[in-house]
Amino acid sequence: xxxSVNSVFVNGEEVQFExxxxxxNLLRKELGEEAIPxxxxxxxxxxxxxxxxxxxxxxxxxxxxxxxxxxxxxxxTPGSYIYTHTDRINRLRxxxxxxxxxxxxxxxxxxxxxxxxxxxxVALQTGIDISDVRYLPGANHLDRPKDEAHPYMRANLAACxxxxxxxxxxxxxxxxxxxxxxxxxxxxxxxxxxxxxFKESDCVSCGxxxxxxPTGAITDIFAAEFANADQVTRTVCTYCGVGCxxxxxxxxxxxxxxxxxxxxxVNQGHTCLxxxxxxQFYNHPERLRNPLLKKNGKFEKVSWDEAYDFIVxxxxxxxxxxxxxAIGGISSSRCTNEENYLMQKFIRAVVGTNNIDGxxxxxxxxxxxxxxxxxxxxxxxxxxxxxxxxxxxxxxxANPTAAHPVTGAKIKQAAMKGTPLIVIDPRRxxxxxxxxxxxxxxxxTNVAMLNMLLYYIITAGLxxxxxxxxxxxxxxxxxxxxxxxxxxxxxxVTGVSKELARQAAIAYASAPNAMSFHGLGVTEHSQGTxxxxxxxxxxxxxxxxxxxxxxxxPLRGQNNVQGSADMGVQPHQGAGYLDITDPNAQALYExxxxxxxxxxxxxxxxxxxxxxxxxxxxxIWIIGxxxxxxxxxxxxxxxxxxxxxxxxxQELFMTETALMADxxxxxxxxxxxxxxxxxxxxxxxxVNKVIExxxxxxxxxxxxxxxxxxxxxxxxxxxxAGVLQEVSRIVPFFKGIKWEELGENGKQWPVAExxxxxxxxxxxxxxxxxxxxxxxxxxxxxxxxxxxxxxxYIITTNRDLEHYNCGAMTRRTGNVxxxxxxxxxxxxxxxxxxxxxxxxxxxxxxxxxxxxIKAKITDQVNPGVMSTTFHFPEIMVNxxxxxxxxxxxxxxxxxxxxxxxxxxxxEFARV
Amino acid sequence: xxxxxxxxxxxxxxxxxxxxKMVAGARENGSPDNQLLRDLAEEFLMGKAxxxxxxxxxxxxxxxxxxxKVHVCNGSACMLAGTQDSIHEKLGTHxxxxxxxxxxxxxxxxxxxxxxxxxxxxxxxxxxKVAEYISDRGENDSSYVIKSKLSTPVLTGEALxxxxxxxxxxxxxxxGADGALAEIKASNIRGRGGAGFPMGVKIESCKNTPAGQxxxxxxxxxxxxxxxxxxxxxxxQPLSVLFGMLTAGYIAGASRGVLYIRGEYPESVxxxxxxxxxxxxxxxxxxxxLGSGFDFRFKIIEGAGAYVCGEETALLSSIEGQRPEVxxxxxxxxxxxxxxxxxxxNNVETLAAIPxxxxxxxxxxxxxxxxxxxxxxxxxxxxxFNHPGMVEVEMGIPFKELxxxxxxxxxxxxxALHVGGPLGGIVPVHKIADLTLDFESFQQQGFLLGHAGIxxxxxxxxxxxxxxxxxxxxxVESCGKCFPCSIGSVRGREMMAAAAEDAVKIDRQLLDDLLxxxxxxxxxxxxxxxxxxxxxxxxxxxxxxxxxxx
Lengths: 911, 550
Fold this sequence. Notes:
The complex is a heterodimer. Chain A is α/β, with parallel strands linked by helices. Chain A has 32 helices and 36 strands. In chain A, the strands form nine sheets. Chain A has a seven-stranded mixed beta sheet, with helices on both faces. Chain A has a six-stranded mixed beta sheet with strand order 32-34-33-36-31-35. In chain B, the strands form three sheets. Chain B has a six-stranded mixed beta sheet with strand order 5-11-10-14-12-13. A four-stranded mixed beta sheet of chain B has the order 2-1-3-4, with helices on one face. In chain B, helix 8 packs across helix 15 and helix 10 runs parallel beside helix 12. Chains A and B meet through helix 2, helix 5 and strand 8 of A and helix 1, helix 3, helix 4, helix 19 and helix 20 of B.
């Protein structure tokens, strides 16, 4: 473009601007971030124009008349003359701030640090102090009561200046709309819900308002100490697979608060209540601080040496007696890539078995396997940023507003603004409420449901013939089988009308760019892997691969579940997904590990339990996973652990699993170590140590190295950079990853040798060459065919926003005040039929066992279907879940449990 | 901020309207109850804070409104006429004090003494028959003089028949969108709401913005005390307004028209509703109008007592059921307006001129008036005039001719005229001779034509009290979004009140700073326009006001 067209004069200097750029953005770029004072502007909010402090003078000709314009929302006029500090502007800013100070608490203004109180900063910048205010005392809001009832959120609205930043954050960032103004004009008052205060409102405690507030009117319980912290360390959240960047503030070695950096590519200044507030577990009194050895049925505190000696001695004797395959390991997706790499290396190279698995088994193993079979790579094809470019979103079996809150909020934002949303879920989730098409299917009928969509796409002729011809194989057979489906039967079994399915199918297939997200509602089924492959089919037959705004995007559950699989925590694939039965791969691994390696595929987690019960497996080392509380069929898991000669559990807390251990090793939380986590969009990000491990706890990677050494393997001590370097030599897609070069926002794999990050894969061709299109017929799960007569209802399990998995961490934070128990969601009709009232205890029985849970009557679930969580050990919902597994990946079928219910005879919960 | 709420509200379309449901919910008790607000939030997929916050904004929805049975007008004209204390007192014999509320300007400025009872406005001598009206809300006979000195009136002629409008619309169809637009552009008509923006440019901008759905919005939220020209058109010439919307819709490609009529004008709502039915019966509303393939349907949205809704972006938010807070521009409504769709917002009087423009041609319209201010203007004259009422005059006539000729001068001594509403200029009587009635003349002389409602300030009314009233008006009506207006208006009111009542002298520097801050800093004209009149008063009534200054 012609230079003059995009030039403008800033205080007399000619500069270039971007078309559409606001004056404020231009001025910040040219004159520095702090050059123009602002109060209502915030980095993650849209321009609003309420404070007017950012005003500048603008003339259309060099000596033309000047007009005052608010720079935050006025686009640059080409060729105009912008003056940022004329006398009039300086006066205006000062006079506005003076007006604001007529209704601001004097003591707070005097006491606050201008680095934390933006009003004070702007006041000083514009040359006015609260003592300079000329107005006589008048109407004010200095006596507003404080709101201190919520476990985290605080409001002191006497200090509110009505800039709306909190209200806008609640709407534009989180999309919750809990905050509003009430009243009019000067009497406007920020209000939570229907004047209920934070605690009673629908606030989800994401803290976006607190982070947005410039004056300390809305804060949280950590804000004061955060303001006075010695140090702020950037790291990555330990909770879900979104991978939010966090700024962790510390004072004297204690964590005092967390907020979200605005420049984080993953989360842009946002995070959820788990990431922002649920960190207090780290120094909870119940945190394990010493190694424990069970002696005579009781745990005793022991030294690390004693614990190591015991473990090594046992491992060696068991291996000598029963062979290496009598030993297994479960690594942790909560740990770093480097630690997961070391654990699988220990099991393979030091113990000499492939009995290594991880929690992905019970969550996304079908995703990894299904996507590998379809595309060649078991990872998201695209990135979360693609939500900006997509024209249609399909969410299958996922409730991201609870389980992946930051991604959930982004999907919600897109849907509210009108991007068509299809939700396939048995529950009426928050996204389902917003969806254009909610296919509320019966649990266990995903394959039938997706076949309906595939059927309507193909019969409507909406398939992308060119893409199919050039990029895929298997389509003709597939189409033949799809077309011969009995669509009425599919509608019957899913419970979803043909017309709704047809409309959704057409919406997906006719969008220029459609992207799908899926969660455990897809994978945790007997046909989980097949469903993943059908999702791939949907993307392939509509050509939704290889561009912005498309693809298949699993919402990975744990913070590093992607990474643990990448690092080889699977019994059939080593680091980098190489097949351990392939001689070339074996040779490569053996070269790097310097020892001969086992050649047979090891046990998957459920097979480990079976092997233990069969007496074939004798020892297990479990890191950071509470299999007793979270794996299905608790009684069976317990029996398996009881049968073993050695159970080593490395944990933060005395979990249900740790209680059954012979040795408990105190590991380190994410705050206490360095390494990398890989989020659900293949982004390898640096986890930076914030504090030293508490008590005598040790960094998990170092514990593994210590045991490796004691078992005679020469492994250097744990450093993130060192292990990552070792990984990058073995894992092909980590080739260009170097600790020093990851930067603050990490890199998305594959990272080539030149260090280039990849935000989209399968762009030109699939990793496996041609995409594999395959048909799958729906089969009713055995859980139903075997038990439906006796157990006529279906329970499907889910997660709540406030808690994470077994809740070991979140239950030891303020989150527990927001959500104290697992409840049973039950439809009003089922409740009525069984004489159950809201809040009654319900006895739920399956073929495995029974539990008592408190009923919550809701239309979130259809009649015949119930739903609950397993965050609390008091309930142990997995007493009733089944040990039916995905036929391919052995992921348990948590999502379909046949049960019967009755009002509990006991009046009390089993606490 | 508004984007999500606009989209969510828009999902339900115009027929299931959130704001309308809130207003309907207030009918019984004076404000919608929390359960209704909760249910509406659920239905519209919003947080319940949103409906709760929106309802709290409006005079006729907020909880304070519960139990009010009669409303006394407290607009500037009634206040200056000094009729309202007695109205209040007389109503007090029939109603408890807590049952008497206020409404700001019922558009009865030509005779004052206005109040609203049972959805009916009364004024002048009506108070004497209030006992009758309480039991039987019969017809009240409020007539006012309507005058035009034009040989062919544009706005005030005899109302055309529906058949005449049908044939006029055939003319639009024949001319096509481009042809009709060309006539409007040739007329050079500028918006009558106050800002004077060229209508042709606005319609063209909307026409050129691609979108599946567009809207025509008639801003019938005539809130300025002293003005009743929109009320006149809505009640006496409703088809002209509807025709204007229909034509704008045809040109821009909009299939829905919304009339946002203020709640203070219940009669206007009733009349327009009937006019829409008549249009529908004549095939001028609905699908495939006159076989043109053009679909258009009208919708009336009744306001709920918030002056700021006369600001176009606030008005759009109000229709959407959001708090009517002024939005930033860009985006302009013609790009992203109602429900985020391209929207033309025009004032009643502007739209009402379209039939003339189509009938006589843009050039004929432009032949009236001055080069930059074409056409005619409705002027509202208050009860201080010897000939109060509604006057249509050609733009550019000497102001003196209007005041002393057509208006017949004053019944009692007047020292100033507040022209163009509370945000207009205060013209001292000695300046009348220096003005002609057009946008430019008023601007050059440091005043504002606005919609040309004229409120007389009597000789004996203390100017300091009037200034307090003006600050109070803005303080009460400010949406509260921008700092200069929401805080500044309150501080100004306090300054004036302290000076008038407690002899606290005003710091002139501080007042000047305040006025400058509001004028150049405010987001919209509510804060930005107030200083004009105040500064006029400070200039022309310096002698009277100097006693209040340090």
